[in-house]
Design brief:
Helix content is 33%, strand content 36%. By secondary structure, the protein is α+β, with helices and mostly antiparallel strands. A 7-stranded mixed β-sheet has the order 1-2-3-4-5-7-6, with helices on both faces. Helix 4 links the parallel strand 4 and strand 5. The longest helix has 15 residues. 29% of the residues are buried.
């Protein structure tokens, strides 16, 4: 597996097919993107996040170069803390360790290339498989924001997790 910057022309049509279920889409997008995922909205939100937080979108690829994962990353230089957002793996490849491998590469990039001391991410409490994946590579729960988001008749807590340089 490799990670590289997201290239809209090559990657969007692949990524948009990964989450066809609205509930899972909401867990991934935190209502930042419209459902179903559309290129104009996706690109607009990514540009807004780049302008506001210096977010950079990345894809993880298999050995043939095909995208199998996506995430955004930025660094807050004031506190030297990286932030991972919108972490997603191709639905057909979940449960096979690709998320763990992608996040391990993202963490390595964050610590070694951007020199962040700590990396954080948020995950909704109902997304237990993602939370277990993050814990398996060393992320620890730092705080919980109760009722942070509503999806239909459900209210979800948002867990903030972090990992520090060893």
């Amino acid at each position: 597996m490799r990670i590289r910057q997201y290239i809209a022309k090559k990657d969007f049509d692949i990524i948009k097919k990964w989450v066809a279920d609205e509930r899972i889409f909401t867990m991934w997008s935190a209502n930042k993107f419209s459902y179903p995922l559309e290129k104009r909205n996706f690109e607009s939100v990514l540009m807004e996040l780049a302008d506001k937080y210096d977010d950079c979108p990345f894809v993880a690829t298999d050995d043939s170069g095909r995208p199998i994962g996506f995430f955004c990353y930025s660094v807050n230089y004031v506190v030297n803390e990286g932030m991972l957002k919108f972490i997603m793996v191709d639905n057909s490849m979940r449960g096979q360790g690709f998320g763990k491998e992608m996040l391990s590469l993202a963490v390595k990039y964050a610590f070694e290339i951007t020199k962040a001391d700590t990396i954080q991410l948020n995950v909704f409490s109902v997304n237990e498989p993602a939370k277990k994946c993050y814990e398996s590579i060393g992320f620890i729960e730092r705080s919980v924001a109760p009722n942070a988001i509503t999806y239909k008749n459900e209210s979800w807590d948002r867990c903030n997790m972090f990992i520090s340089k060893k």
